[in-house]
Amino acid sequence: MAQVEATTERTIAADAETVFDALADYKEVRGKVLPGHFSEYEVREGGDGEGTLVHWKLQATAKRVRDCLLEVTEPTDGQLVEKDRNSSMVTTWTVTPAGEGRSKAVVSTVWNGAGGIGGFFERTFAPKGLARIYDELLQNLAGEVEKSAK
Length: 150
Prior knowledge:
The protein is an alpha+beta fold. It contains three helices and seven strands; from the N terminus they run βααββββββα. The protein has a seven-stranded antiparallel β-sheet with strand order 1-7-6-5-4-3-2. The longest helix has 34 residues, at 116-149.
């Protein structure tokens, strides 16, 4: 099994603290900014960063739906880590300042891929597909925080 990784980033016209706070707000903001690939969104514990337990289904392709139950931690300032209890998947969100009133949001997901020919296709195509999904999420997040920053 090889590790598979998907990463994407976006510069957002809002300060890093505002972007991070919105990203860590699983009660109000996160559910609003998730693209259509996510369903059955539910906050089960907490709801604001560290200590949150959140559930969703992620439909990466027409045939591939991942049932996710994520524990959220904040290992360092500006970083959220979502560890899936149902798989090896770990998603790390990092928000850093990027100049006056701007920030850079980076999302990186890693998991243990399948072996054999299925694993080859997963390593080849899954990172691009997941990066597109997270790019849409970051675009939605930018729209959400930029309108309130004005």
